[in-house]
Amino acid sequence: MSSAMKVKRLSLDDFSKIKEMDTGIEDDYVVRAFENLLHRPDNFLYGLMEDERIVTVAGYSVFASRFAILGRLRTDRRYLSRGYATKLLLEIIEELKINPTISFIGAATNEPNVSANKVCRKLGLQQLVTFHSLTCRDFSKLQDNGPTWTPVETVNEKRIRLQALKENALGMFPYECYYPLPLSERDLSDEYLHRMTCYENHDSSRFFFIHENQKGEFYSQVKYFWNDLFEQKGLWNTIAHHVQQEQSIGWIDLSPEAFQNIKQPEIFDIQEPWRLYGTWT
């Protein structure tokens, strides 16, 4: 490894170097959103430099003040298989470990992505949970004739529902699309709860949250914490109505058990299974 290699927190001045990277990624999100990524206070982007060339990029986003999720990893194809991705991420992790505000360091990757899973293990991150993400443009195609569920209006009422949650089949909280977190109700701010819409069924035994996310496409992400999605009357009608109102694409995360019981899979776009890795600091 070249003695001239160094890790640098990237700035707008590095944009031309980012564009010079040969990653093989068409319409690379890091290139397309570079300025926005740098301007957001909860996003951090780093480059591993060889002399004045960026050979690897990675970064992290901070959620709920104390959860750092690694991502945006890509390496110039001319520098693959040299351990550069691991080197850069290890340095980022060491920086995060001495940050007193960070309690958790994690990463999410698709199950078939062998290299990314290998990197996570090299970083000392433990596999915490596997889950499935599905999207759908028309939930009304699901055969559900039940009544729509009732909105839960206030932040306090939403928080009470979460405090009473005795089980979470997902094993994580889907904070945003692509960003699962092992957090508790205490980590959710009033402002975050205010932005989420909440619905509950007629006997208040089940509820779900739905939250709009702009991730290239405009999504309404459903947060439901049980495995009985296809047994609850009115659940899918309520989701369909909300998604139609928002003119969005529905997104829902399922546990492996719930995924095995999926009905009408043909109406969903099904991603490869995801794995959440992480460690507490």
Automatic annotation (TrEMBL):
Residues 5-146 form the N-acetyltransferase domain. PROSITE patterns: GNAT. One of its GO terms (molecular function) is acyltransferase activity, transferring groups other than amino-acyl groups. InterPro entries: Acyl_CoA_acyltransferase, GNAT_dom. Gene3D superfamilies: 3.40.630.30. It comes from the Bacteria. This is N-acetyltransferase domain-containing protein.
